[in-house]
Q: What sequence folds into this?
């Protein structure tokens, strides 16, 4: 009993190093403005996004930290259509990218893998297509990855199993194929995370299903 | 070639007469001259959606009447101009363009042409004007372009052209204008650029041009505009940008090389080094933008020699020193931005006399001293931003004297005094930002006469008195931030007139009374923060009609009454802070409708009663849920198992009973989250044996006992882990751990769990162990007996049967705890939990089988060199001290850092197995030592806090 409870305490220590980087407020404003240009905004939720301001911190639905760097983008359920832009990858202090329940189309930009501070990536319930970028495996702080309810295709990148902080994964209701990785952080996810992907095959087991078997991924 | 001959021959015949009418009739389709043929080929490559080119017909003899085509008026007309701009053409540009050898003017801009620029363009040797801008062209710039020695204007901007600029560009000796911005060009600028003596304009911004700016650029002696912003240009600014003036007098005896340069745009590159003093020789310059680079050193005073300078942007570099006073003589300066550098010293006094100054931005430096008080007297200031400096003194009174000021940002300085009337009456003002100073006085009600004002930000100052009713006149106001001041009294009901208000932050003031119900008329509100005041009374019910609200903070007030049911309508709410009030009644179940709630729901420290509504379990994005210090009763709803995003929660100090939700989140939550309740149990609170409600006293005392148990477990546990680790490091250094692929099994109350496709039943286990016969037992522990089971598949596993003869459900708890913990841990040195099995009261844990026997035997059995391992290790250390001799000599001793790390871990392990519990370090200390040892990469000295008690230990023995 004693040994049983002690095990997980060893996993606790984390050293968080924050490195001060020069202000890039303009760059971040430009990145967000690129998003504004790429989406249709019938509800005018992005009306306050004025690219001539020195930083985007006064823009609505944007939250900044003390250095005027963007940490949150709250645009869930905002009736946005259009596509995501690679420029979003420049928001390196972004922790929350909340774009769920919109009508966004097109691919998930691989540049989102540069958002090294990201804690939550919520793109669920949109019309996104293409594959899940393997670059997301660089998001070492990612806790929540919700991509469910889109039209994503291809395999689940095995690299995502490296996401040690990942607490929630939801890729259900897409059109993914291949097998479900079970190693690394994926060992804690139940089949619920992967439901309703008709071409996705059961959990991969060591020595049973070859991961790279073509399966129904052709 | 034959086609060419035949068609031109026919053309001549056609002119000659009518003798060969029949032949002509046959050949009319081929009667078009060669230019026409080439154009038709060009048309073939294009998709002409709107039929702009419908009159391009092969039946014509010449193309001279076709749309976009112009011919010479010679006897034999040839095409000299082709203008196809803005015709919605798509498709590709055919190589046949090279056949139009007389072409001088070619414009294909603003279409949707894809593909490469054909290298055949090099055959159009008379071409002077070539515009392909605003298409979707890709590929590289063909080197053949260099053959166009008459080319004066080349525009390829806004395409997707890649590759580097060819060296051959240097042969375009007539080139006047080169526009290539917004492409994907790479590589350095060609050095041959120096040959372009007529070049006036280079615009190649927004590419990925690299390298440094070649000193040869000074050869471009006609250059007026150099635009290379937003590239990857590194290196230093070449002195030759300016000092060519001196060279030039000798070399060319004419005008200085770049002396005519008027506009120099190099922002957003990787430039480093200092700004050369020779910059002052760009005597004709009007606009210089070096912003967003890595320039260091001081701002050269030589800028002051550029008398015509109107725009100087050097923001976001790493410049140091003071702002040179000499800049004050730049009478024509309109826009000056030196923000985000490391500049010190005062703002030059002379800036106030720069009559043309419109935009003055110096924010994000360490400027000190006062702001020149005459600023604004002589110039029509439009934007003034001095925020984030160390400025002192007062706001200059005349900033808005010429009624042009739209933005005044003085955030984060040490300014004091009142806001001068000159600013308060500034009709043009749109944003006033004074956050983080020492300003005093009452709320400046004059501000509310300013019809354009959209932002008032006065946070963190020393303003006093009430917020006046006049605030209601600020009809355009979107942001009102008055937090962290000393504002008193009630908020005026006129706040409700602010129909455009989006964020209102009045936290940390001395505000009292009721929150005015009229605030619900501010329908655009997204953020409302009234926390840390003394607001009292009930919340207006209609708060639930502020449908745009994303953030609602009301914590730390004296608010009372019920939480309005209608708050559940706030479907965009991400954060709800209501803690530290006197809210009473039940938690409305409607709060479960807050589907966007993510940051926190904090209802702690109120007088809430009743049970926790199960509907809150719908908040699947919620990360922090604080319900502590209320009078909540009943249990924590089972639906809380669905709070999948929860990172933290606190239910402590309520009157809650029952078991914690069985998901790992609650089972692993710190015990402090549940303290002070009537009868919570499960997880860290221990088992739920007995009827908790019948004996509440016993259960409230339970936590302390549990803490002691846990601490003891931790100390014991860590010893075991460390020794496992060390054993592996010492004994099995070459064995590579295979990747772990098992899937954790979700816990529920049914029969058997094992990774899918390999499932076997309880009966299989019974068979494999002969109904758990003693002969199959390989070890016994505190928790139960371990059996070796060879399954039908040939796989050997270890089955741990938890002792089932004890009373109560305690076993089930330890069973669950072990599953939940081990199931999550995947480490090569920790035994893998394959699965578990629950069958009619029997609890089985299925592990990887370790052929080398049990840990206890290895540690304390006589199997290791005549004694138990711990004793052996202690003796060795006593005799030889802790040296690498203790390590197995089969180790690869070349890797010094690994060895050093192993020794330091061994040292920790010996500490952990000290005889006296007092000598054993706490879990926290162990973790710290492990971190420390990892950081040091083999430095053996542990900090003195953890002195090695080995000697005492042995002597005691």
A:
């Amino acid at each position: 009993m004693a040994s049983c409870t002690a095990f997980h305490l060893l996993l606790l220590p984390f050293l968080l190093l924050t490195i001060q980087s020069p202000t890039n407020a303009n760059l971040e404003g430009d990145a967000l403005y690129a998003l504004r240009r790429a989406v249709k905004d019938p509800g005018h939720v992005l009306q306050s996004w004025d690219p001539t301001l020195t930083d985007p911190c006064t823009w609505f639905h944007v939250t900044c930290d003390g250095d005027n760097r963007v940490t949150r983008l709250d645009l869930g359920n905002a009736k946005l259509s259009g596509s995501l832009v690679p420029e979003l990858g420049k928001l390196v202090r972004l922790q929350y990218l909340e774009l769920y329940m919109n009508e966004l189309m097109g691919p998930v930009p691989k540049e989102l893998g540069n958002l090294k501070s990201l804690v939550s990536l919520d793109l669920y319930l949109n019309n996104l297509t293409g594959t899940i970028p393997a670059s997301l495996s660089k998001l070492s702080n990612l806790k929540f990855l919700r991509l469910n309810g889109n039209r994503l295709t291809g395999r689940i990148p095995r690299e995502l199993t490296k996401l040690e902080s990942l607490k929630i994964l939801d890729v259900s209701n897409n059109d993914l194929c291949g097998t479900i990785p079970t190693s690394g952080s994926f060992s804690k996810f139940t089949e619920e995370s992967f439901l309703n992907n008709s071409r996705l095959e059961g959990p991969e087991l060591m020595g049973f299903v070859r991961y790279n078997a073509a399966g129904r991924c052709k | 070639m034959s086609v060419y001959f035949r068609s031109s021959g026919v053309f001549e015949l056609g002119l000659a007469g009518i003798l060969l009418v029949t032949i002509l009739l046959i050949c009319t389709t081929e009667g078009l001259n060669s230019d026409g043929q080439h154009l038709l080929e060009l048309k073939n490559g294009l998709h002409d959606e709107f039929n702009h080119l419908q009159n391009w017909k092969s039946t014509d003899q010449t193309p001279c009447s076709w749309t976009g085509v112009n011919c010479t008026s010679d006897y034999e007309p040839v095409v000299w101009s082709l203008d196809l701009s803005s015709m919605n053409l798509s498709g590709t540009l055919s190589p046949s363009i090279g056949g139009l050898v007389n072409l001088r003017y070619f414009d294909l801009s603003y279409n949707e042409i894809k593909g490469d620029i054909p290298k055949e363009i090099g055959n159009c040797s008379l071409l002077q004007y070539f515009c392909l801008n605003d298409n979707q062209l890709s590929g590289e710039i063909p080197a053949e372009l260099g053959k166009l020695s008459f080319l004066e204007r080349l525009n390829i901007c806004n395409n997707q052209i890649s590759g580097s600029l060819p060296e051959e560009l240097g042969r375009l000796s007539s080139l006047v204008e080169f526009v290539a911005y917004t492409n994907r060009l790479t590589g350095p600028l060609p050095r041959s650029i120096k040959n372009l003596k007529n070049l006036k304009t280079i615009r190649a911004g927004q590419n990925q041009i690299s390298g440094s700016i070649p000193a040869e650029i000074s050869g471009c002696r006609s250059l007026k505009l150099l635009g290379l912003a937003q590239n990857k240009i590194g290196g230093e600014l070449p002195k030759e940008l300016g000092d060519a003036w001196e060279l030039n007098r000798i070399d060319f005896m004419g005008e200085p090389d770049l002396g005519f340069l008027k506009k120099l745009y190099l922002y957003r590159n990787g430039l480093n080094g200092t700004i050369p003093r020779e910059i002052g020789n760009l005597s004709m310059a009007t606009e210089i933008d070096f912003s967003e680079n890595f320039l260091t050193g001081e701002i050269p005073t030589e800028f002051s020699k550029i008398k015509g300078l109107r725009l100087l942007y050097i923001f976001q570099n790493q410049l140091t020193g003071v702002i040179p006073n000499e800049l004050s003589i730049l009478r024509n300066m309109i826009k000056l931005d030196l923000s985000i550098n490391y500049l010190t010293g005062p703002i030059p006094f002379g800036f106030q006399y720069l009559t043309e100054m419109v935009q003055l931005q110096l924010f994000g430096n360490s400027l000190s001293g006062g702001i020149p008080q005459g600023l604004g007297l002589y110039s029509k200031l439009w934007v003034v931003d001095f925020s984030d400096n160390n400025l002192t003194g007062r706001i200059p009174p005349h900033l808005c004297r010429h009624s042009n000021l739209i933005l005044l940002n003085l955030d984060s300085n040490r300014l004091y005094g009142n806001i001068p009337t000159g600013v308060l009456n500034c009709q043009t003002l749109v944003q006033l930002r004074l956050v983080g100073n020492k300003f005093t006085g009452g709320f400046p009600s004059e501000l509310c006469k300013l019809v354009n004002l959209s932002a008032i930000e006065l946070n963190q100052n020393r303003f006093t008195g009430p917020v006046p009713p006049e605030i209601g006149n600020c009809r355009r106001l979107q942001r009102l931030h008055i937090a962290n001041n000393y504002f008193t009294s009630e908020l005026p009901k006129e706040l409700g007139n602010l129909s455009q208000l989006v964020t209102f932050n009045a936290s940390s003031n001395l505000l009292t009374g009721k929150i005015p119900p009229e605030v619900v008329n501010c329908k655009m509100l997204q953020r409302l923060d009234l926390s840390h005041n003394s607001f009292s009374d009930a919340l207006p019910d209609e708060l639930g009609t502020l449908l745009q609200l994303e953030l609602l903070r009301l914590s730390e007030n004296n608010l009372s009454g019920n939480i309005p049911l209608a708050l559940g309508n706030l479907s965009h709410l991400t954060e709800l802070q209501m803690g530290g009030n006197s809210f009473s009644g039940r938690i409305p179940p409607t709060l479960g409708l807050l589907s966007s709630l993510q940051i926190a729901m904090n209802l702690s420290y109120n007088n809430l009663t009743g049970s926790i509504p199960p509907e809150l379990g719908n908040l699947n994005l919620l990360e922090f849920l604080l319900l502590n210090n209320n009078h909540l009763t009943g249990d924590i709803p089972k639906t809380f198992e669905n709070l999948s995003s929860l990172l933290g929660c606190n239910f402590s100090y309520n009157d809650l009973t029952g078991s914690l939700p069985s998901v790992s989140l609650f089972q692993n939550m710190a015990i402090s989250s549940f303290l002070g309740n009537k009868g919570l149990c499960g997880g860290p609170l221990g088992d739920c044996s007995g009827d908790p409600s019948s004996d509440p006293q016993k259960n409230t005392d339970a936590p302390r006992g549990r803490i002691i148990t846990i601490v003891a477990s931790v100390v014991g546990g860590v010893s075991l882990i460390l020794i496992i680790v060390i054993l592996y490091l010492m004994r099995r250094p070459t064995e590579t751990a295979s990747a772990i692929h098992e899937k954790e099994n979700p816990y529920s109350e049914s029969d058997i769990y094992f990774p899918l496709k390999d499932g076997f039943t309880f009966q299989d286990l019974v068979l494999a162990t002969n109904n758990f016969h003693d002969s199959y037992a390989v070890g016994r522990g505190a928790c139960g007996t371990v059996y070796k089971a060879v399954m039908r598949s040939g796989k050997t596993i270890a089955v741990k049967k938890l002792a089932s003869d004890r009373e109560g459900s305690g076993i089930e708890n330890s069973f669950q705890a072990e599953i939940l913990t081990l199931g999550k841990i995947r480490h090569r040195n920790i035994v893998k939990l394959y699965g578990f099995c629950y069958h009619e009261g029997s609890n089985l844990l299925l592990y990887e089988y370790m052929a080398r026997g049990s840990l206890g035997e290895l540690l304390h059995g006589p199997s290791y060199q005549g004694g138990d391992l711990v004793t052996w290790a202690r003796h060795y250390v006593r005799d030889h001290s802790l040296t690498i001799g203790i390590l197995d000599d089969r180790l690869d001793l070349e890797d010094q850092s690994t060895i050093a790390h192993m020794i330091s871990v061994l040292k920790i392990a010996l500490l952990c197995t000290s005889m006296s519990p007092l000598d054993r370090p706490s879990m926290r200390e162990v973790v710290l030592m492990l971190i420390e040892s990892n950081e040091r990469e083999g430095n053996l000295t542990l900090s003195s806090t953890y002195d090695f008690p080995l000697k005492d230990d042995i002597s005691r023995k």
Observations:
- The radius of gyration of chain A is 19 Å.
- The CA atoms of residues 168 and 199 of chain A lie 22 Å apart.
- Chain A touches chain B through 49 residues (CB under 8 Å).
